[in-house]
Amino acid sequence: MSFTNETEKQQFYMDKCREIVKNKERTLGRKLTACVVTFGCQMNFKDSEKLMGILAQIGYEETDDEHADLVLYNTCTVRENANLKIYGRLGYLSKIKEKNPEMIIGLCGCMMQEEHVVEKLNKSYRFIDIIFGTHNVFLLAELLYERFISGHKIEDIWDGTTEIVEDLPSVRKYSFKSGVNIMYGCNNFCSYCIVPYVRGRERSRNPEDIISEIKELVNNGVVEVMLLGQNVNSYGKTLDNPISFAQLLERIENIDGLKRIRFMTSHPKDLSDELIEVMAKSNKICKQMHLPLQSGSSRLLEIMNRHYNKEQYLVLVEKLRKAIPDIGITTDIIVGFPGETEEDFLETLDVVKKARYDSAFTFIYSKRSGTPAAKMPDQVTEDVVKDRFDRLLSVINEISREKTAVLEGTTQEVLIEEENKKIEGYVSGRLSNNSVVHFKASKNDIGKIVHVYLKEAKGFYYMGEMVE
Ligand code: 5AD
Ligand code: SF4
Q1: Does the reported pTM lie above 0.90?
Q2: CB contact burial 389-421 (16+ within 10 A = b; e otherwise)
Q3: 364 CA distance to ligand 1 centroid (A)?
Q4: Would you say the CB of residue 192 lies under 6 angstroms from ligand 1?
């Protein structure tokens, strides 16, 4: 067989698998089901939509019940806990497979890029049928076909890739909003972080491919896109015709029918004045910035290899607030990085108080083998970390509460995202700054942008009333 490109090749394997699945359906007298379980970040979530897209094309019916004919875990390894969770869940899956030996179990994602993980899986979790990594998500149909034909376990992990395969199917979880990859990988090598090792080097998609994907999404009812990359601010620098992230945003802004643009993640070292200007004058870019701090201590930031210091970070926050006064700023903070002293920690608290985050994700430092930080001395003891973590959280929560209260009594544009899980007849939606509001509306309005009066700030969310 010869193919003109990878997409065509994978299409061929999807058709082949489809025939096999059809035969199985005939034998069993029912449809086959597939369940893709996502762990970790928005990137993985997006990859899972692509994986489910391929499985749907092959003929599997999507289910979220793990008693399925095919179960695929898309794994995360950013912190140790993520790994432990997978091993625990695999024990449970093996019990399900004992009752259904025909069941296919696949594992993919960041954890599979670690040698010691795959070794452990091969030794102690022998019931797994397919293992692949982050660089060859597009190969699922081919790997599944090999598994069907050979009857053996299939393992295919790539060290890296420069390839970006376009135009494969995707099943979206939401009809009205979608993540859009603009780049893959990371070149920053923050000293605590495993992502550059498991996601490979940074590579940007061509702007034309991004724009045409978004146009297609808009034609299919999408009003909000979330542009995804580990460091969106360095988008486009290595393309044959380099363009900046701000220029990409301007081109996306011109897409008719698209109403909201979000993006993550921004690295403070690369956040340009050009981007702030484009955001300030835009009608579509949401007033939201996720700007990971990691630590407020300039000493630790240097050891973390972050390429900015406390003062530079605070200047950025000031610039953002001046240019876009009602912007919601959120962050990531790590507590207990090796060698973190009480003074370092107090610097972090100081930045939190000055930056006044709308919300923050706080993480206890987790040692990832293979990263430089894993070998650093003075790993902070558990009780000290716990104490700092609690103190940090209480400052963050208090500020979040105060910040949420500022918009109480105003009317804001809200994208209705889902039925409220707790209150019958209510829906939940998001403001431009990413805050959540619950209010009475029909579930038929999901996907619409409406005006909502923010009647009561409840700490981290609002109760509101629709005004139109
Ligand atoms: N330990 C704790 N948190 C980490 N993060 C990345 N690596 C680690 C680690 N080893 C956090 C960072 C990053 C977020 C996605 O996860 O704060 O911004
Ligand atoms: Fe990890 Fe740093 Fe890259 Fe973010 S920028 S993915 S924290 S290495």
Answers
A1: yes
A2: beebeebbeebbeebbeebeeeebebbbbebbe
A3: 8
A4: yes
